[in-house]
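Comment thread on ticket #2218

A.B. wrote:
> Attaching the input chain for the structure job we discussed in standup.
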Amino acid sequence: MDIYITNLKTKDRLRLPMLPEEITAKKANQFASYSIIKKGDVRIPSGTSLDSFSWSGTLPGKYRKKEPYVKEWRKPSEIYKWIANLKAKKGKPVKARLLITGTPINCDVYLQDFSASPKGGYGDIEYSITLVQAREIKVSKKSDSKKDSKKSSNKKSSKKKLKDKPASEERTSKAKAQTYTVKSGDCLWKIAQKFYGSGAQYTKIYNANKKTIGSNPNKIYPGQVLTIP
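C.D. wrote:
> Ran it. Output below, let me know if you need it in another format.
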């Protein structure tokens, strides 16, 4: 498992050299904590969308860069500056991509909080970070009430016209049923596929032509004229 943060503006990607012990994922007012070291993975219920991710960790100093648990060591001061560059510039947040391999976490985020301080004699920096999920805000234009009322009145009048339409006129407006002459090699499934785009609709044709076909829908013969409803 690895944690990657990509600055989507510069396309530069940071791989955290050490995994935190725990990641906290927040949705609304509910918190869920996942152990990284003990379980080795982060499990999120299917279909949920998390609002924020936070954890505390260590940026190892140069005296620990060759330890087996350290991956792609970089100077803690460089990593600190890299993450600090995700802070909002002139009121505009910098969008990043958070990826935690081996988990479903792969989403665009903004940096909400980041603090760090030196600790110990190894040149380590301990830090805490909170990333919030980046969501686009769509602003809908306020509709004109007068235009809306006019549209609704037009819809009502059109519906009334349709209701007042005589039944005889409605019947004449319906499309006339088609006919099809059976050819050699035809079957109802094939004919339904031709007219409806789905062979499973063959029952429509059979029900409309029971007198012509008989009791077995699988037996049709060349020359038979079938009604296609």
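A.B. wrote:
> Thanks. Noting for the ticket: The first helix runs from residue 76 to 84.
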